[in-house]
Structures are given as C-alpha cells and as structure tokens.
Design goal:
With 477 residues, this protein is mainly α. The protein has three domains: 209 residues, Growth Hormone, Chain: A; 53 residues, no CATH class; 203 residues, MFS general substrate transporter like domains (Growth Hormone, Chain: A). The protein starts with 27 loop residues before the first helix and ends with a helix. It has 16 helices and no strands.
Length: 477
C-alpha cells in the first residue's frame, strides 16, 4: 500500500505494522527528533506566510484573488504531489526520497525569497507543496525504524508537529515581517529546512531495499490536478471574469468533467492515487462531508482575518493592528487547536465518536457566528477565533478516529488516505471562496467580512448535519 498522504494509516489492533529490516538506529530518540523536525519545517512554511499575505500582496501589486493563491497553491500542489512522492518512497526508499524532497523544498523556498513578481512566487509555492509528503514519509520511516514505546510516541509527536508548527508560524511570521521583510520568511524557513535535512542525514539510518513495486497512477494524477485547478480557478476568478461568462463556465465545467473522469478511471485502477472505492460505504461519505468542513473553516479565517485586523481603523471596520499584533491575536486559536486534539479522547469516552464529531462542528459554528456578528471588535474576534480553534482541533482528531471505526479493516489505509485528500481540498477551496466574496462586496467591506464568516458557519452546519446523519445510521445498525 502506498505510504503517502493518501495512506496515513496509524497502527490499530486490526492493522499490523509492516516491518522491513533496518540497521538499528544508534538512538531511537534522535530518529524521532529528526523526523519531527522535518515535519515541523513543512508545517511552519505552510502557514508562515498567513500573517504576511496583505503585505506580500501590496509589495507585489497583487489583488485579493492573487494573494489568496499564495496559500492555495501550496495546498493544491500538496494534494497532488504527495501521493506521487509517497509512491516513489515505496519504490525507491523512504529515506532517499525524503532527502530529495527536502532538497527541492529548500530550492523552492529560496526561489520564493527572491521572487520578483507574483507569478514566480506562486510557482515557488507550487514546488514547496512537495513538502506535504514529509509527513507520510516520516510516519513510514518511524514504522520501519522504531518499536514499542518509541513507535507509539512517534505517532503522537510527528502529527503533533503540524499543529505546533502552524501555531508558532502565526507569531514568528508577523514578527519577521515587521522587523525585516516578508522575504526573510523564506530565507529563515530555508535555513530551518536545511537543519532538519542534516538531522535526517545524520540520525535517520538507511533501511533495507523497498519491497513495494507499483506503477505510478499518472492518469489519476493528471485528472486530479486538472480537475482541482479547473474548479478552484473558476471559483476564484468568477467575480473578475463574470460568473456567467463563457470562460468561467467553460473552465469550471471542464474541472468538474475531469473530476468525474477521475472517479471512473480510479474505479478501474489497481493502485489508484485516490481510492474512491471506499465511498461505497455510506458512513465514510458522511465523514468526508464533516472532514471538508474541518479543512475549510479554519482556512477561511486564515485568509480573512489578517487583512481585517491589519486594515486601518479609519476604514470603519479594520482593527489597525500591525502584522505582529495580528499574528499574536491569532495565536490563542492555535493553542486551542492543540488543546482540542488532547481532549478528544475524553469526549469520545464520555459521549461517543459520532457525538464528538457533532460537538466539533457545533463549536466551530459558534466561533464562526461570533466572528460574523462582531467582526469589527478585536476582543470578540480573538475570543471567537479561539472557540473556533477548539472545535477545529476536536474535528481534526475525531475525523481520523471515525474513519478508523467505520472502514473495513482491509480498507483502512485507503479510507484514511481519501479522507486526507478531502480535508486538503476543503482547505484549498477556502482562499478562492473568501477572495471572491470579498471582491464582490468591496463597496461594503464590513458586510463582506461578515458574509465570509457566515459561510464558515454554513460549512459548520453542514458538518453538524453529516454528524447527526452518521449517528442516526449507527443507531439503526
């Protein structure tokens, strides 16, 4: 089975860990530290630019739609490239491929630092998206090299680095932009990537030759990339081109056709890049709907909050914060995301997995409603975004558990993999949606921001409805 972002199968009672002979590491703790550092570097660069998006856009002369793609390009690229890279890891060795990924990641990050215009920056962000594969590659190496308590710790620490990196990035990103410039985000980021690569070279030993030999699903990759780009491009540019214009309709329709073709092709592929066959299980469809909400809602805030908080108070809606201040205002939410993941097991033990999914969606909706009702009040934004972060942290944790509970043992890997793709797509869709809504309400920005946050509430309601349907289905069974 491909060890990619499409295959983040955590150990359970029903999924034995594949073991390949490996040279024993001198220190399992150093191996775990190196793999965690690699994932931390990826997570940091994913969101480090969030507080600086308005600054980058102004410096490069980009509009809201173009600036939003600085984040979307990374997410979209990661959704497409990660399964390809994971397949290469299975075929050529996870450590070797991880080091190649880190080399490309470093070069792309330095290119982003020197980008003379938005086009070059977006191209660099597309290449940076390959770093999404560091997470599944690190998990695959941990499963190969570690045993016992260290292996259990790895499946806690390595995923935890994603939330930790995102939270720290929100703060240091703002500090760097205020003290230096946005270009230093990528300079410092590249240094961290190099340090993590050195750790991997020195502390992560080589494993034996890989045992998996599968062809890469190039048709599936092409259809996935073309379909996602077509749909998201139509959504992001619809307000500029005109929602009823032939260009918008043609590109959007082409994207939908390609995604339909993806489903048909993957149903007949032995090793698909996206195993849509898991959707024949009705609970997994409902879990995927909740997962889209969990991926979409926080990124709505990542895109909308920095320009709202950094806009001048003279506008009547802006908070007049510096980049650093806006980053610090967003930090409590990241803390609550981490806390939400930690309390999820207790919620599941008390209320059950389905009810916990409902709790996550409801809490996200409450936070989003607070943002929609009081977008011009800084204290209300901080409190509401923190509440939303709590629900989001619960959501990230419970979606994985729900997939494990409702998928057949022999299909757990494919189901968790598809769930990861769905979550990434939800996140990638947020930027073009927010940009389109804000552009359409440019004459009344305060109302535009309220609408954006109500859309997040709507997504949370959809997630809640899916959780209720999932619970009802479980009771009938």
């Amino acid at each position: 089975m491909t060890s990619s972002i499409l295959d983040e199968d955590l150990p359970t009672d029903s999924t034995p860990l594949p073991r390949r002979a490996a040279r024993r590491p001198r220190s399992a703790g150093l191996v775990l530290f190196a793999l965690s550092a690699v994932v931390f570097a990826f997570s940091l660069m994913q969101t480090l630019v969030v507080p600086a998006l308005p600054t980058v856009g102004a410096d490069l002369g980009a509009n809201a739609q173009g600036t939003g793609w600085i984040l979307t390009a990374f997410l979209l690229s990661g959704a497409v490239l990660a399964p390809v890279v994971g397949n290469f890891g299975d075929r050529f060795g996870h450590r070797r491929v991880l080091l190649i990924v880190l080399a490309v990641f470093t070069i792309a990050t330095l290119a982003a630092a020197a980008a003379p215009n938005l086009g070059v920056l977006l191209a660099a962000r597309v290449l940076q998206g390959i770093s999404t594969a560091t997470f599944p590659l690190a998990l695959a190496l941990a499963r190969t090299l570690l045993t016992g308590p260290k292996l259990a710790a790895a499946f806690g620490w390595i995923p935890g680095m994603i939330g930790l990196g995102a939270g720290i990035a929100l703060v240091i990103g703002g500090v760097i932009v205020d003290a230096l410039s946005w270009r230093w985000l990528f300079v410092i980021g590249s240094a961290l990537i190099v340090v993590s690569a050195v750790m991997a070279i020195v502390w992560v030993p080589r494993a034996s030759a890989p045992t998996v030999n599968r062809r890469t699903d190039w048709p599936g990759i092409a259809l996935l990339a073309g379909g996602l780009v077509g749909v998201l491009l139509a959504v992001s540019q619809g307000s500029t081109w005109g929602w009823a214009s032939p260009l918008t309709i043609t590109i959007g329709a082409a994207g939908i056709v390609l995604l339909v073709a993806l489903v048909l092709v993957e149903m007949r592929t032995a090793a698909p890049v996206v195993d849509v066959r898991t959707f024949r299980h009705a609970p997994l469809v409902l879990i995927s709907v909740l997962t889209v909400a969990v991926g979409f809602v926080p990124y709505v805030c990542y895109i909308a909050l920095p320009p709202l908080m950094q806009a001048s108070a003279a506008t009547g809606y802006g908070h007049g914060m510096t980049v650093t201040a806006s980053a610090l205002a967003m930090l409590p939410s990241a803390v609550f995301v981490f806390f939400g993941g930690r309390v999820t097991p207790a919620l599941v033990a008390r209320w059950g997995a389905g009810s916990t999914g409902l709790i996550s969606a409801v809490v996200m909706g409450i936070g989003g409603a607070g943002l929609a009702l009081w977008p011009t009040m800084p204290w209300a934004v901080i409190v509401s975004f923190s509440i939303l972060g709590l629900g989001n942290g619960i959501g990230y944790a419970i979606c994985a558990q729900l997939v494990m509970r409702h998928s057949p043992a022999e299909e757990t890997g494919a189901a968790t993999g598809l769930n990861s793709v769905v979550r990434t797509i939800g996140s990638a869709a947020a930027a073009p949606v927010v940009a389109a809504l804000l552009a359409a309400s440019a004459a009344d920005a305060a109302t535009g921001y309220a609408i954006v946050f109500w859309v997040a509430v709507g997504a949370s309601v959809v997630g809640a409805a899916a959780s209720v349907a999932l619970m009802a289905g479980a009771r009938r069974r």
